[in-house]
Design brief:
Largest sheet: none
Oligomer: single chain
CATH class: Mainly Alpha
CATH architecture: Alpha/alpha barrel
Radius of gyration: 20 Å
Order of helices and strands: HHHHHHHHHHHH
Helix content: over 70%
CATH topology: Mitochondrial carrier fold
Number of strands: 0
Length: 295
């Protein structure tokens, strides 16, 4: 690994740790996303709102219910973000030699490359995390992780860890959209020469919100593919990605594709704002910051 790659990885890791306290909102988002509003073949209760979800989770599972998969999430997010930014920064640097420094083509190519490659490598981590978050039982910590991994493997073999990969690759455009909007917004804010210390914070939050709205239906479909009843049932609720989309539209309407989006925004926007704020500052500390004439 190049020295700069290591520094980008350290910056990404440091920023990831700083945003992990928002994990409970990710659990609520995943559970709301997975429920089709019907009374059968759902792993989790129906939550009417975020506050209702908080009350039900605490009542049924206690405080530990909000921490399910938190260490696995930290691991998955750490690996995913380190891979993304190492792939992204190195590919962008390579493309800059062809298209010129700061070229939009470099950003686009690097973001697509990093998103797709990172998603393929980390898909088993996300499948496992989704299953951990959908577990409403009393198991927590390592016991929950061990049980979940064994269950996925026993039900569907190693391919079970790649459930929803096709949709995940489509949904990986989330990272591409986010980083392009982030770079554009950061450039715009830098030119304004106001609130310079908060530029990365504002750009990070805005870019995440834009990316969530753009790709949320795909992540909803992905969540329903991964959920337990689809993997283990001999008569699964859904037969394909198209079948999921069709049934959501038919039984739940357009709103069905956006279940849990409020929790996703409440978790995603501040976490990415904080993440990019620390990421850019760690880059400066580690001497891989942006040149002053970058924008």
């Amino acid at each position: 690994m190049k020295q700069n790659d290591l520094r980008f990885a350290l910056a990404s890791q440091g920023a990831t740790i700083c945003v992990q306290f928002l994990h409970p909102l990710d659990i609520i988002k995943t559970r709301m996303q997975s429920h089709d509003g019907q009374t059968h073949k759902n792993l989790v209760p129906k939550y009417g709102s975020i506050s209702n979800a908080i009350k039900q989770i605490y009542k049924e599972e206690g405080f530990k219910g909000f921490t399910k998969g938190i260490l696995w999430s930290l691991c998955a997010n750490s690996i995913a973000r380190v891979l993304f930014f190492v792939f992204y920064e190195s590919k962008k640097e390579e493309c800059n030699s062809y298209f010129g420094h700061g070229s939009k083509k470099s950003i686009l190519i690097a973001s697509i490359y990093a998103s797709l490659l990172g998603q393929i490598i980390t898909q088993p981590l996300w499948v496992t995390l989704t299953r951990l978050q959908l577990n409403v039982g009393k198991m927590n910590g390592f016991e929950n992780v061990k049980f979940t991994i064994k269950q996925i493997h026993s039900q569907h073999g190693y391919l079970g860890f790649y459930r929803g990969l096709k949709m995940s690759l489509f949904a990986s455009c989330h990272g591409m959209i986010q980083i392009n909007i982030y770079e554009w917004t950061l450039s715009f804010l830098t030119q304004l020469e106001q609130y310079r210390d908060l530029n990365s914070f504002i750009a990070g939050g805005f870019s995440k919100g834009f990316a969530i709205f753009s790709t949320y239906p795909m992540t909803t479909i992905k969540t329903r593919i991964i959920q337990n009843q689809y993997i283990e049932s001999e008569n699964p609720k859904y037969k394909s990605n198209f079948d999921i989309a069709n049934k959501i539209l038919q039984h739940e309407g357009i709103k069905g594709f956006y279940k849990g989006i409020t929790a996703s925004l409440l978790k995603g926007m501040p976490s990415k704002a904080i993440y990019f704020f620390f990421y850019e500052h760690f880059k400066v500390m580690l001497n891989v910051g942006r040149p002053q004439n970058n924008y």
